Amino acid sequence: MIAVSIIILSILLQVTAAFIALSLIKVTGNKWSWTFIALAMALQALRRILVLIGLINGELADFDVQSFELIGLVLSALMAVGVISIKPYFIAQARSIEERKQAEEKLQAAKNRYHVMIEKSSDVIALLDGNGIILYESPAATHILGYPAGELSGRNAFELVHPNDLQSTLELFTQLVKSPGDNTKAEFRFRHKDGSWRYLDSIGTNMLNDPHIGAVIINYRDITERKQAEEKIYKLNAELEHRIAQRTMQLKTANKELESFSYSVSHDLRAPLRAIDGFSTIILDDYDAKLDDEAKRMLNKIRTNIHKMDSLINDLLSFSRLSRTEMEFSRIDMALLADSTYHETASSDIQEKFIFSISKLPDAFGSKTLMRQVWINLISNAIKFTLPRDIRKIEIGSYREKDSNIYFIKDSGVGFNAEYGHKLFEVFQRLHNSNEFEGTGIGLAIVQHIIQRHGGKVWAEAKINEGATFYFSIPDSIAGQTLLT
Questions:
Q1: Which residue has the higher pLDDT, 20 or 145?
Q2: Higher-scoring residue by pLDDT: 77, 161
Q3: 127 CB-near residues (< 8 Å, 6+ apart)
Q4: Which tops the pLDDT comparison, 92 or 441?
Q5: DSSP states of 101-122 as a string?
Q6: Which of 296, 315, 397, 422 has the fewest CB atoms lying closer than 10 Å?
Q7: Strands 481-482 and 477-478
Q8: How confident is the model at residue 65 (pLDDT cuts 50, 70, 90)?
């Protein structure tokens, strides 16, 4: 029975070793070697099964089998222990091979990605040696510079740089070569295959000491269109500056002529008017008894028109001075200014005939002197065109719109045809007969000019016999100066 036990134990060891050998096929990938080992183990196990059967059937002597199988048991045990002991080694080796294989696959994938990035990039990547010889140019060079692939390799890059850019570009490259790991930027012109010049924007990195690269990496792109656009803008700016200088000179000349005209109007034109008025007064005073009523009427008519002419000259001079008046900006209390202007403009008798109201007005930022003139003209107009009415009201208010304050003055006067409202702000334009309402037709033109100098606008709304409303806007910021709140 000892022999039977030994045989059974040998069979179990050999079968176990065979299965372990088969499992190593998957681990190591060595199919045939481990298959033969497993087959040998299996055949040994089969041989022992046959011996066991012969022993059971009495065909073999127990002592002989026992001695023989004892040696076989030792060999099977040694073989099984050997296979079992080398399994972790083979597993570790297999894992190491698998990890190395995966690392190589990742590395190859990364190389492929970088290769695709370089090949498909619209920017050019070039490699130069320390002397400027082109070692490599990515495919984008063909698109940008027109040279077929490989044609630039072996050429000195500086042979193709524009003569006017050569010295500065060469100095930058020489300095870069002396500084391992550094980078520098440069813009220069490079010759295209067709002989034209292309503006390139580049950045170079010194990798000469890198064992994997051993070159200067140049990354560049075509900026020719941008440069051409910049040159056009530069030319346009130069032309604009020239035109501005011309225009400024013309304005200075026009201002001098306007000053001369103003002087002539103020002195040369007024002198004869004063003479006519003076002589008319003398005739009326000294020859009163000799003049009939018609003569007196005509002389008085002459004096009335002279006074109108004098008022017109005054308004024209005021209008012409507006463009030359220096604007001193400050915070303006619009409610106080409008209220004081009304009480200064309207006599006490006039004030008794009107219902005047003024709402709380926001402050404005501008010229107080010019803004006073705006209120004088608008309030005078409101009084003049409302005085003939039975109900006389003047209302001043405001409202907010975007970045501006809108001020308005509303009256219950005779109004006007809104279809012609735009003409109100033109010089000498009147919508009412001068026999009905006196005036020169310049007051509202002055208002518009002042408001425009403050960066705002002016407009009016009205209906005939239903009154009129005049609006003007003052922005928060004027010529870079802001109303602080």
A1: 145
A2: 161
A3: 134, 135, 136, 213, 215, 216, 217, 218
A4: 441
A5: HHHHHHHHHHHHHHHHHHHH-S
A6: 422
A7: antiparallel
A8: very low
Contact 34, 91 (CB under 8 A): no
User: By the 8 A CB rule, do 34 and 21 touch?
Assistant: yes
Could you tell me where the beta strands, DSSP code E, fall in 295-392?
329-332, 355-358, 364-367
Residue type, 392: R
Spatial contact of 396 and 468, defined as CB atoms under 8 Å apart:
no
Output the CA–CA distances (angstroms, integers) from residue 166 to 158, 162, 300, 428, in the order listed: 7, 6, 89, 68
Tell me how crowded residue 121 is: count the other CB atoms within 10 A of its CB.
Answer: 14
What fold does the segment set 325-482 form as a domain?
Heat Shock Protein 90 (3.30.565)
% of the chain with per-residue pLDDT over 70: 64
Helix, strand or coil for residue 130?
Answer: coil
Burial label for 227, CB within 10 Å (0-12, 13-18, 19+), is middle
Q: Are 72 and 48 in contact (CB under 8 A)?
A: yes
**Domain spans of the chain, in order of start:** 2-116, 122-222, 225-324, 325-482
Three-state SS for 459?
Answer: strand
Classify each residue of 17-51 as buried b or exposed e, where b means 16 or more C-beta atoms within 10 Å of its C-beta: bbebbbbbbebbeeeeebeebbeebbebbeebeeb
The mean pLDDT of 113-119, rounded to a whole number, is 59
Distance CA 158, CA 174 (A): 12
Report the topology of domain 225-324: Helix Hairpins (1.10.287)
Whole-number CA gyration radius for the chain = 54
Dist. CA 406–CA 456, nearest whole Å? 9
Q: What is the pLDDT of residue 398?
A: 94
Determine how many CB atoms are found less than 10 A away from the CB of residue 93: 13
- DSSP track, 264-278: IIIIIIHHHHHHHHH
| Separation of alpha carbons 63 and 122, rounded Å | 89
Closest by Cα among 7, 18, 96 to 53: 7
> Higher pLDDT residue, 334 or 307?
334
Q: What is the distance between the alpha carbons of residues 428 and 284, in angstroms, rounded to a whole number?
A: 32
| CA dist., res. 100 & res. 113, Å (int) | 20
Q: Give me the pLDDT at residue 32, please.
A: 45
CA distances from 434 to 370, 393, 413, 431, 461 (A): 26, 23, 16, 9, 21
- Cα–Cα dist 384/437, whole Å: 7
Q: What is the pLDDT of residue 485?
A: 41
| CATH number of the domain located at residue range(s) 122-222 in this protein | 3.30.450.20
Residue with tokens 């870079």: 480
